[in-house]
């Protein structure tokens, strides 16, 4: 059967809806990251407390991605997305009208995780409309909604400075999510090819498979690195280089743009050359660049290194999710939640590592060295697994999408790589 091009396949309105949903949700999810320096003027915090504050939304998102993955499987990704956007308004109202202590702010930060869980609904909503040979690009475009981070880092501190209050930023964020909720309701459709919900007893079986854990580890590095740095870089530029809050957030924005734009590019290149091959290159590049950042060079050099490093991590996100639908096509909703949760846990750990080591040593060098070693370990893992996969579900395609091999991979016991 003749293959259709990407633009002849799928449903473009749904793809746009998934992107907008993920984009506005991601903006809300990381809202506290750039505001942390401004908030610290009202609630003085140690480096560790700042790290905890920006890490809590990521922790909430990690746990709730499992819930959203389950819901996307059972009630459909569209309805799951609608519920997610409605509930995401709650922490915005609390941050705008209620918070008057650091403890209450921690609660708001944790509740912002609802927006971060959008990943587990947005990607299946888009991906289930597209054939295997276009999965990387489709899910890369939907996943490029992590560009919502750009809006948070670019405008949050400016709005806080303009209105003289960081609380008003939470109130203003209600407007875009309300608009997207209406558009999403009108435009998005569940795929007619969406797999039937699976029995709860079958879910545990997925986690008995080695490949599921491997994808979790890989995504914990790529997405965890991206979202963790997105949340923490404003603090880093402020503490290390003495930049004012707005200026520090602007520098963080530049780095985030690199990671956001290259997610769909990573998916596209993985469709062409293989996700495993791309990941090997991208992890190696990230390891080298983060090791270079650990020397804390002059600001222009650091900015360049972090920009390219975030490009590697962003493209790596697209590459991981070029592979996941091939290996777990029938369990895509659930696997998106599981792998997404692992990515969120990586993003939760990163600020804590940087913040605690900075408080104990007075330098960011040890933290960035550890991040570099983690990326190098991921490169070694994907190199080993690629050799195994070539003799299993990946076949001779080297990680490129194969419309014949992929379904068999999801169903074949021989390809399950059980622990």
TrEMBL record:
One GO MF term: nitrate transmembrane transporter activity
Keywords annotated in UniProt: Membrane, Nitrate assimilation, Transmembrane, Transmembrane helix, Transport
Bilayer topology: Multi-pass membrane protein
Domain of life: Bacteria
Cellular-component GO terms for this entry: plasma membrane
Keyword Transmembrane among record annotations: yes
InterPro entries: MFS (IPR011701), MFS_dom (IPR020846), MFS_trans_sf (IPR036259), NO3_transporter (IPR044772)
Transmembrane segments: 20-41, 53-71, 83-99, 105-125, 137-156, 168-191, 212-235, 241-262, 274-293, 299-320, 332-354, 366-384
Gene3D superfamilies, A to Z: MFS general substrate transporter like domains
Compositionally biased intervals (Low complexity): 401-419
Every Major facilitator superfamily (MFS) profile domain range: 13-390
Record family assignment: Belongs to the major facilitator superfamily. Nitrate/nitrite porter (TC 2.A.1.8) family.
Protein name stated in the entry: NarK/NasA family nitrate transporter
Source organism per UniProt: Paenibacillus albicereus
């Amino acid at each position: 059967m003749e293959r259709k091009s990407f633009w002849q396949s799928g449903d473009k309105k749904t793809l746009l809806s998934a992107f907008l949903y993920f984009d506005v949700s991601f903006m809300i999810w990381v809202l506290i990251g750039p505001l942390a320096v401004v908030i610290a003027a009202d609630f003085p915090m140690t480096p560790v407390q700042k790290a905890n504050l920006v890490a809590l939304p990521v922790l909430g998102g990690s746990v709730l991605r499992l819930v959203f993955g389950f819901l996307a499987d059972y009630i459909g990704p569209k309805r799951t997305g609608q519920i997610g956007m409605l509930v995401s308004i709650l922490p915005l109202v609390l941050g705008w009208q209620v918070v008057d202590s650091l403890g209450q702010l921690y609660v708001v930060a944790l509740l912002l995780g609802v927006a971060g869980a959008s990943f587990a609904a947005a990607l299946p909503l888009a991906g289930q409309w597209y054939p295997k040979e276009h999965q990387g690009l489709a899910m890369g475009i939907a996943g490029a909604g992590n560009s919502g981070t750009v809006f948070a880092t670019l405008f949050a501190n400016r709005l806080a400075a303009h209105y003289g209050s960081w609380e008003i930023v939470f109130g203003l964020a209600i407007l875009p999510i309300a608009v997207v909720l209406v558009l999403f309701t009108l435009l998005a459709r569940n795929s007619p090819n969406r797999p039937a919900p699976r029995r709860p007893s079958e879910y545990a079986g997925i986690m008995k498979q080695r490949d599921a854990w491997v994808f979790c580890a890989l995504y914990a590095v790529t997405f965890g690195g991206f979202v963790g740095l997105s949340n923490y870089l404003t603090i880093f530029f402020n503490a290390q280089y003495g930049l004012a809050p707005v200026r520090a957030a602007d520098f963080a924005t530049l780095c985030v743009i690199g990671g956001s734009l290259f997610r769909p590019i990573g998916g596209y290149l993985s469709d062409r050359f293989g996700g495993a091959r791309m990941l090997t290159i991208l992890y190696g590049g990230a390891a080298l660049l983060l090791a270079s950042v650990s020397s804390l060079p002059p600001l222009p050099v650091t900015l360049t290194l972090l920009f390219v490093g975030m490009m590697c991590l962003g493209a790596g996100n697209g590459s991981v999710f070029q592979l996941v639908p091939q290996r777990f096509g029938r369990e895509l909703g659930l696997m998106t939640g599981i792998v997404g949760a692992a990515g969120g846990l990586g993003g939760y750990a990163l600020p804590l590592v940087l913040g605690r080591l900075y408080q104990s040593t007075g330098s960011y060098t040890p933290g960035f060295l550890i991040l570099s070693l983690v990326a190098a370990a991921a490169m070694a893992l994907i190199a080993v697994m690629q050799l195994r996969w070539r003799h299993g579900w990946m076949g001779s395609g080297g990680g490129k999408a194969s419309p014949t091999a992929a379904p068999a991979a999801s169903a074949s016991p021989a390809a399950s790589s059980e622990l």
